[in-house]
Amino acid sequence: MSYQKLIIVGNLGRDPEMRYTPDGTPVTSFSMATNRRWTNSDGSQNEETIWFRVSAWRRQAEIAAQYLSKGRQVMVEGRLQADKATGGPRIWTRQDGTAGASFEVTCDRLILLSNRGDAGSGPGPGEDDGGGGADYIPEDDIPF
Description:
The protein is mainly β. The protein has 1 helix and 7 strands.
């Protein structure tokens, strides 16, 4: 037996998009980012943003479509899905020409962590939110 579980806490990069499969099953897709900051031994600051493309199905899809919006902080429990073409993350090119990657996740559980009024009210560019989640994501860096 094998088992996989991924837990992500981050912020939505865009509003979710809901659609229906031909048999009427709802599915909602949204992008979310996690942000990690650290200080090197020489005192320089570093930051790493990891993007996830999340697909929620059935009741989770309906909840995501109804309550999520750009900037909302959420926790997703789910399974990592490999890109069928590469076997790894989906690779893309940013507008500045640098490479980026996003990871595909199938949502098993969705937990809303910020109130509807809290969306986008987090720290601005360069401010640490202290929680390890993404704060400000430039629109050009959103991969989808």
